[in-house]
Specification:
By secondary structure, the chain is mainly α. It is 75% helix and 2% strand. It is built from 17 helices and two strands. The protein has a two-stranded antiparallel sheet. A hairpin with a 2-residue loop joins β1 and β2. α10 runs parallel beside α13.
């Protein structure tokens, strides 16, 4: 619910959500960038096991927002649930700070992170949607800049945490190196929480109905009790690949069933929008299979088959740590986001802004090109190692695709889904993304490096073989996305016609022009 409040502009309210999201993602990606190699190098997992544990964790991290969105909408409020999630996430990263090699502590810490993310993620996105209710012209731009917040935080942390691990590890031992790096993630969350407390008044008029009511301690206690149980359930799932696989696939069936039920039971005027959202969500699932390669196969590729030195015309510039190559994704997102915002606004003013479905098709084409770059780069490999610049351009194309697909996924929910379903549907979107990330880990295991194989020429062939196949799959996804464009146009037009006949939502104050919040 967004109520009129002339004292607070949209941009100031948006800035508050933008900054807490930035710090939250600082913690999450600082942890993610190290997790697979931590399990392999510190806990002794083989690559296939590490990939699947992280894939299952990613699936749960993206699945729990379906519950968190409902909690925010119906029980304790969107703002309160988002804040609770940030605190819980900080506790999860603090558990990873403890210097131990006990796998079960890792599973429990990941369980806490899974629950915290479930509270935080859908409600932060839903607050952005509520800020811009009644101002659809800015939704795409707002969510693109919001998506950039994710990558500002991750860009800093994915550079910092591998460096902290190596720096502290060299001086105080390997164990302290790993766990101090995870501790940096907890510190980032703490800074974000302090900043939010200082700016929280800008969101007092934004939220769901429970946010406007007095705090209900008994209801909050029940939610936290259920959350504690979920931590241990998640830890149990993570320690068993069979249980994880069953849960992920079952979640896929449930989400599809819920989508079908909502479409069948919704009002006729809402169906076209929901069907359009379902089609775009299925396309998003395919995208996140590609996305999961960043923390799995592409990460391990950098460990074995990338020349870590950056040089221009024979002049050495700098050297990166293998995990830091994941940071290229965030760097490109930050560079490309303002360009796309400018393009969306310019095309929108001219009445030529491509549809979300068309942007999805362009996104898949860019992703396909990015994975082909890795395969092509192998032709110029020296001693089984490709140039760092191959990774730069591959990630650049992949990141453009990400902005066009995943970056607009939230805007798609905001545009096509009725407001009363907003929190839940944000969560359902994340569940679909999580299922895809588990599938992405399964795909990454096709590039399994057998134990004892240390020849970079052989591992280069294994990795680039997978990347080339993914390039062809990306082209197939592009063809399918183009083929459904006429259907999507019809659904979008039908949705727009019914929306125009409905009573408009009360507008919130809009500022002249758009600027980056700061």
């Amino acid at each position: 619910m967004a109520t009129q409040n002339p004292a607070v502009s949209q941009t100031r309210s948006f800035s508050t959500v933008f900054l807490i999201e930035m710090w939250e993602r600082f913690g999450f990606y600082g942890m993610q960038v190290l997790m697979v190699t931590y399990m392999m190098k510190k806990l002794g997992f083989v690559d296939t096991h590490a990939n699947l544990v992280w894939g299952a964790a990613a699936a749960l991290i993206y699945a729990t927002p379906a519950i968190g969105g409902w909690v925010g909408d119906k029980l304790i409020g969107t703002r309160r649930t988002m804040l609770t999630g940030a605190v819980v996430l900080g506790l999860g990263y603090a558990l990873l700070w403890i210097p131990t090699s006990n796998p079960y502590l890792l599973y429990c810490a990941l369980g806490v992170i899974i629950v915290g993310n479930g509270f935080f993620k859908p409600n932060a996105g839903n607050l952005v949607r509520k800020i811009y209710e009644g101002d659809d012209t800015k939704i795409d731009s707002a969510f693109t800049i919001y998506y950039m917040a994710v990558n500002v935080g991750s860009m800093i942390s994915m550079t910092l945490t591998p460096w902290v691990r190596d720096y502290v590890g060299e001086r105080y031992g390997d164990a302290w190196g790993w766990h101090t790096a995870f501790g940096i993630c907890a510190i980032g969350l703490l800074l974000g929480l302090v900043n939010y407390m200082l700016m929280s008044r800008t969101l007092r008029h934004i939220g769901s109905e429970p946010d406007q009511k007095p705090f209900n301690l008994a209801r909050f206690g029940a939610v936290m009790l259920a959350a504690t149980a979920m931590v241990f359930i998640a830890a149990f799932i993570l320690q068993s690949q069979t249980v994880a696989r069953i849960c992920v696939y079952a979640a896929g069936v449930v989400i599809l069933g819920i989508f079908i039920h909502l479409i069948r039971s919704s009002e006729r005027s809402e169906r076209a929008g929901l069907v359009a959202a379902l089609v775009l969500t299925v396309q998003t699932i395919f995208f996140f299979i590609f996305y999961q390669q960043m923390s799995t196969s592409l990460n391990l590729f950098a460990q074995k088959n990338v020349n870590l030195d950056f040089s221009v015309f024979g002049m050495h510039l700098f050297t990166w740590i293998p995990e830091q190559y994941q940071n290229l994704n965030a760097i490109w997102i930050v560079l490309l986001s303002p360009v796309l915002v400018f393009a969306y606004n310019s095309l929108g003013r001219a009445g030529k802004d491509p549809s979300v479905a068309a942007k999805f098709a362009l996104g898949f084409a860019a992703v396909a090109a990015g994975f082909f770059v890795y395969g092509i780069g192998a032709h110029w490999a020296v001693a089984g190692q490709v140039s760092s610049w191959t990774m730069v351009w591959g990630y650049g194309l992949y990141s453009l695709g990400e902005l066009l697909v995943s970056g607009l996924g939230l805007a798609m929910i905001a545009r096509y889904v009725p407001a009363r379903m907003g929190g839940f549907m944000m969560g359902a979107y994340y569940v679909a993304s999580g299922i895809a990330q588990y599938l992405g880990s399964v795909v990454a295991n096709f590039a399994h490096i057998p134990e004892g194989l240390n020849d970079p020429l052989q591992s280069l062939q294994i990795y680039t073989g997978l990347f080339t196949k993914l390039g062809w799959v990306g082209l197939g996804c592009t063809a399918i996305a183009v083929a459904v464009l006429p259907l999507m146009k019809k659904l979008s037009n039908s949705h727009a016609e019914h929306a125009a006949k409905a009573d408009p939502l009360p507008p919130v104050r809009s500022e002249e022009g758009w600027e980056l919040p700061g």
